[in-house]
Design goal:
Elements lengths: L1 H20 L2 H17 L1 H8 L5 H12 L5 H12 L6 H16 L1 E8 L5 H15 L3 E8 L7 E5 L2 E4 L2 H14 L1 H4 L2
Parallel strand pairs: 1-2
Antiparallel strand pairs: 1-3, 3-4
C-alpha cells in the first residue's frame, strides 16, 4: 500500500513535468513501452525488486535497455529512482502513469471479452456504446478472446458490465428452469 502511494507521487510529478515541457505523448509512449517490457519479462521485474542485485548493476541494465530509446525526461525519472534505490517502483509507476494520462486526457477505458477477435465494424459500435455509457469523447478499448463464452460478448465500462454472452443466457435459463416447481418433479 505504501509503495502505491509513493508510486502515485512520482506519477503526479512526472505527469506535471511532461505537461509543462510539452512532451506528454512521448513520456506516455515510453511508460507504455516500459509497462509492456515488465509484463512480457518476469525476470526483468524480479531483477528490479531484488535486494541482492546492487543498485549500480540495476542502473547499468536500465541504461543499456532504455538509453536512446526513451525521451530524456523518462530516462531522468529512471535515473532518479535508481539513485534513491527505488527502482522496484518502476513497474507500478509505468502502469499508473498511463492511468493518470487517461484521466488527464479524459479518455474512457473499457474492456470487451468475445469468442472471436472483434472486427472493425463491431469495434466502432462498441466504442460508440462506451462513449454513450461513460460520457467520454475518447475511448481506449481492451480486447480479449475467451472461447468459453460460446458466443456474444462481455463489455466492462467502469463499474458497469454488459453480459451478452450465450454462456450467461444459458446459465440464466438453467436457473429459471430449476426454480420452476413443475420441472423439478421430473
Amino acid at each position: 500500500m505504501a509503495d502505491a502511494r509513493v508510486a502515485s507521487r512520482y506519477v503526479k510529478s512526472l505527469l506535471g513535468l511532461a505537461v509543462e515541457q510539452g512532451v506528454l505523448e512521448a513520456v506516455n509512449t515510453d511508460m507504455q513501452f516500459f509497462d509492456k517490457v515488465c509484463h512480457s519479462n518476469r525476470d526483468f521485474v524480479l531483477m528490479l525488486k531484488s535486494p541482492i542485485i546492487r543498485h549500480e548493476k540495476k542502473k547499468e541494465i536500465l541504461n543499456k535497455l532504455f538509453s536512446g530509446r526513451v525521451h530524456p525526461l523518462t530516462m531522468s525519472i529512471i535515473d532518479i529512482l535508481t539513485k534513491k534505490n527505488r527502482e522496484s517502483l518502476l513497474p507500478s509507476i509505468a502502469t499508473e502513469f498511463h492511468n493518470a494520462y487517461n484521466v488527464y486526457k479524459g479518455i474512457g477505458k473499457a474492456s470487451v471479452i468475445s469468442t472471436i477477435p472483434v472486427d472493425n465494424e463491431l469495434r466502432s459500435e462498441l466504442v460508440a456504446l462506451v462513449k454513450k455509457l461513460s460520457n467520454k469523447t475518447q475511448v481506449e478499448l481492451e480486447e480479449k478472446v475467451d472461447k468459453d463464452l460460446i458466443g456474444g460478448f462481455i463489455l466492462n465500462v467502469g463499474d458497469r458490465q454488459i453480459d451478452a454472452s450465450i454462456k450467461n443466457k444459458l446459465k440464466t435459463l438453467k436457473n429459471k428452469f430449476s426454480e420452476n416447481p413443475f420441472i423439478k418433479q421430473f
